[in-house]
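Record 1 of the preview.
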Amino acid sequence: MHHNFTLPALLSLACALTLSACASVNPAGLMAASRLDPLNTAPTEIAVAVGVPDTLRLANGDVQLYMGFKGGSATSTVIVEETVPLQVSPVTAGELQPNADGELIYAARLAPEDAARIARAQAEIKQLRARGIEGQGTLSVAVTGGCLVEPLLDTLLISTWLQTSPEDGFVSLTRQQDVFRVLGESDAAALRSQLVPCGA
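->
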């Protein structure tokens, strides 16, 4: 999930996932993402779910959340960046429906200590805005690792869901996009290198 925003106004979703094409965004997911205010939503209320092939197992830290802001003049750029691991757990049957046979869904949330890090980044960005510094921010989620129970094929299909508050359920954001194709050869190779056999 990749969300670009300017200050003070939130822009519409630029792309649903750093790992997927914009054309794959579901309308309901687009509406849910547009309601997400990256600077004023409590980090503990931000949750995503990712669907991966059932040959891939995810553990804590294999999905990461990034928040960044770049602003200021060309000669004096102010940058705020924070990347934190997400805690993942398999979604119970019936809570979310896989998009295809063989898809395993994980919910991904921030641990309290990592939520505090994102909260500090939010506070820094808001302080910059209070000083009149304009710029653009990014909120993104990426799968960065995992282990394989059997070798992957040439594709890595990933689906995503978004939850913007505890009262709301997950909304489908994207359906089974091939990460390797979207990332390009170099980045796809780097991700492949992180996908090791389970128990290795």
